[in-house]
Amino acid sequence: MRTKLGLLTILIFFVIVSYAQAEVIKLKAANYLPVTHKMSLLTQWFCDEVKRRTNGRVEIAYYPGGTLLSPVKMYDGILSGIADMGLSHIQYTRGRFPVLEVFDLPLGFPSGWVNTQVCMDFFAKFKPKEFDDVHVFYVTPAGALILQTAKKPVKTLEDLKGLKIRATGRLADVFKYLGAVPVPLAMPDVYESLRRGVIDGVSVDYSTLKYWKFAEVVKYVTSTWKIGTTITFYFAINKKKWDQLPPDVQKIMDEVGLEAKEKQARLWNEMDLEGIEVFKAQGGQIFELSDPEAGKWIKAVEPVIAGYKKSMVEKGFKESDIEGWIKFIKERIEYWKKEERARKIPTPF
Length: 349
Prior knowledge:
D-Maltodextrin-Binding Protein, domain 2, 13 helices
């Protein structure tokens, strides 16, 4: 009798264990940024935190450093199931996210903290249909882009003429109108291209001076924040996969996503300030555009905004709607700039 009870107990134990194992939801997350990059560590935090808050019901295998998907292939990889979720930015797939590309325009975007709040507001209000195939945890533009050059200092618009500048998406249009030659490259290829002289410079945020080690291969920075262009990242999960998740799991993942968004918003400012510090420590020179000089740059890129409006009208959008997006963005920029000051959030600009 005891033997039978013992066998029954063991059988029940294995059934319970097997059932528990079957109930574990396994997902894959991809990120192309270097493994030690703070944004990669934040994605790792998201994965770990979801597992913790779901008491192990959700396990997310994390693939940083482009080990599963490159930044260019990220969105298609999420849709096809190579990864269930991933982080990349919209400039790698120009035309894929036409509404959110309004954040590619030189509209005066300042710090990453401000830009992220503005973009989340925009996303919540206008709900771009281009993201219907995914569930978005957050969208987060970087801080204002600056110009980094390897050998030639750029102090005026004339200095920029003919220089080969790494720029993707609509940022390529910005540099075309500024007189440079835009070169589309994935970020992992930029360091060597700068070192070997394949390109003369790159337009990215200050953080890259440290976290992509560009301070090792560039000598000059032109602080073009008054032009106000940015790069918009997204962190999203396949919509079909999302719809299969239990409601309580969805709730937890959304909560963690919003917390990650705020962490990322503050990270942009923090990383930009760190980038400036590292660059100066290595003897790098930073040039600020005067208001009159910045005015020349802003005037030169006006056709980029006009071109965006024209292309969107051709896609069937109303010009009044597009102007409404831009008006909304500019209003929210001013609101969140005041909030940034009120909350005493350190900012590079």
